[in-house]
Design goal:
This protein is mainly α. It has one domain. It contains 19 helices and no strands. The longest helix is centred in the middle third of the chain and has 21 residues. The N terminus is likely disordered. The chain binds protoporphyrin IX containing FE. The site of protoporphyrin IX containing FE has 25 residues, from helix 8, helix 9, helix 10 and helix 12. This is Oxygenase MpaB family protein.
């Protein structure tokens, strides 16, 4: 297909599905047939469609048109001023984009402010676990998700990982903020911008030779199944680990933490009939979507190295072995090996002994004298890491890309 007809097809919106379907001749992933029941979704029902063949038609079409008209730099300039949930959209946006954004910024009818409030408090009290797990668990796990690693590597942001990490971490920070979805918060803005960035990437990456050669037959990146895979590497994984670590979580907190991520999935453009309604439904979906796709890719290994180098910059490399060991402890050796984490037997042994005791102390189960000295070194390193990772307080602007990674 020549470039012009390909673009026309992309711009045809619904055609994204058709194009993606062309990829079905080559299995894009090893996962089994989709049989997750929509009765377990927040919608409660739905046509039994496979999210592997669903993208985000409306967003993809509008962003395709904005790119085609060469309006991305102007739109990014205008959107820099749009930061708070309650702020009107800036004047001067292209009309089709403005209409899309007005719709996309509406919270779903099922969003429950009381639950969102409980989630915000939970994120604050359990911040050390949640922060460490997002950064050293989910963040590094993303490099073992082949489609994500490759999309990130070959997209514009792949060339400047430091910048990308702080931008991605903005979502982790905003979602856990006390005001996240409140008028004063920033999470609606962050989610809508992210949805638009993903839509831009769907229009751009198919033109990247590096991506096209490694996409395993997928013709359009970031399907709804892909977004759900990443989603499970975030809340589903984090909740599972916190339970394993015996962190005290009340049923209301557990439900609220799920809720804040359900709302986030909706705001990122995931269909309600794909969003799990309960942790059981989430675990079942995660088994079907996330577990089978984890794997080693050269791009993922390179990204892990870059990520750990960035961590090493915090203290001249001193805590790099500790961070590697903590990630291995969190993700397990299988994923640790996949992404090329170094083996740190001394630190790994220290963490395996000290971390459960530190958690037990923080959760009020054991008294202070039972916590070994090493636990505080680990906690201190994690705190430093979380602070840098979340770039707290720094203004960070998410920008729509209009090119792929150069070269
Ligand atoms: C950009 C979050 C799923 C690929 C972003 C950004 C955020 C984000 C906050 C903006 C950061 C930046 O501009 O650098 C999320 C969340 C996801 C998700 C919360 C799921 C719950 C995915 C998936 C893929 C993906 C499944 C690919 C398979 C990308 C790419 C960019 C991006 C390529 C753009 C980087 C660029 O500008 O070059 N995502 N993402 N994301 N995301 Fe995602």
């Amino acid at each position: 297909m020549d470039e012009l007809s390909r673009r026309k097809m992309l711009l045809a919106g619904g055609a994204l599905g058709a194009l993606g379907a062309l990829g079905s001749a080559t299995p894009a992933s090893a996962r089994s047939a989709w049989n997750w029941a929509a009765s377990g979704s927040v919608a409660g029902a739905g046509a039994p469609s496979d999210p592997q063949w669903v993208w985000d038609d409306e967003a993809d079409q509008v962003l395709g048109a904005v790119i085609e008209r060469g309006e991305v730099p102007r739109v990014n300039e205008l959107l820099r001023t749009w930061t708070r949930n309650d702020q009107p959209l800036p004047a001067g946006l292209p009309e089709d984009l403005r209409q899309f954004m007005e719709k996309a910024r509406q919270l779903p009818s099922w969003a429950d402010q009381a639950k969102l409030g409980t989630a915000a408090k939970f994120n604050r009290t359990k911040g050390i676990y949640v922060g460490a797990l997002y950064g050293l668990g989910s963040g590094l796990m993303s490099t073992a998700i082949p489609r994500e690693a490759r999309a990130v590597y070959y997209s514009k942001g792949g060339a400047d990982m430091k910048d990308r990490i702080s931008k991605t971490a903005k979502l982790g920070y905003d979602v856990g903020d006390l005001d996240a979805f409140q008028p004063r918060g920033e999470m609606i803005v962050t989610a809508v911008k992210t949805r638009m960035i993903h839509a831009a990437v769907r229009n751009l990456l198919p033109k990247s030779p590096g991506w096209a050669e490694t996409s395993g037959g997928q013709k359009i990146p970031i399907s709804q199944a892909d977004v759900l895979v990443t989603w499970h590497s975030l809340p589903t994984f984090v909740m599972r680990k916190m339970r394993e670590w015996k962190v005290r979580i009340s049923p209301a907190e557990s439900e609220a933490y799920l809720h804040v991520w359900q709302v986030t999935a909706h705001m990122l453009g995931v269909r309600d009939d794909f969003i799990p309604a309960t942790w059981d439904a989430a675990d079942a979906q995660s088994k079907q979507l996330l577990d089978p796709v984890l794997g080693r890719t050269p791009e993922g290994v390179k990204l892990t190295e870059v990520l750990l180098d960035i961590v090493a910059e915090i203290d001249g490399g001193l805590s790099r072995p500790l961070v590697s060991a903590f990630s291995r402890y969190t993700l397990g050796d299988r994923i640790g090996d996949m992404i090329g984490l170094s083996d740190e037997p001394l630190w790994e042994a220290a963490i395996a002994t000290a971390w459960p005791l530190l958690v037990a102390f923080r959760e009020g189960v054991i008294p202070l004298p039972l916590v070994p000295e090493a636990a505080w070194t680990i906690e201190e390193a994690l705190r430093k890491f979380i602070l840098v990772f979340l770039s707290e307080g720094k203004p960070i602007h998410l920008e729509i890309p209009d090119t792929n990674r150069p070269g």
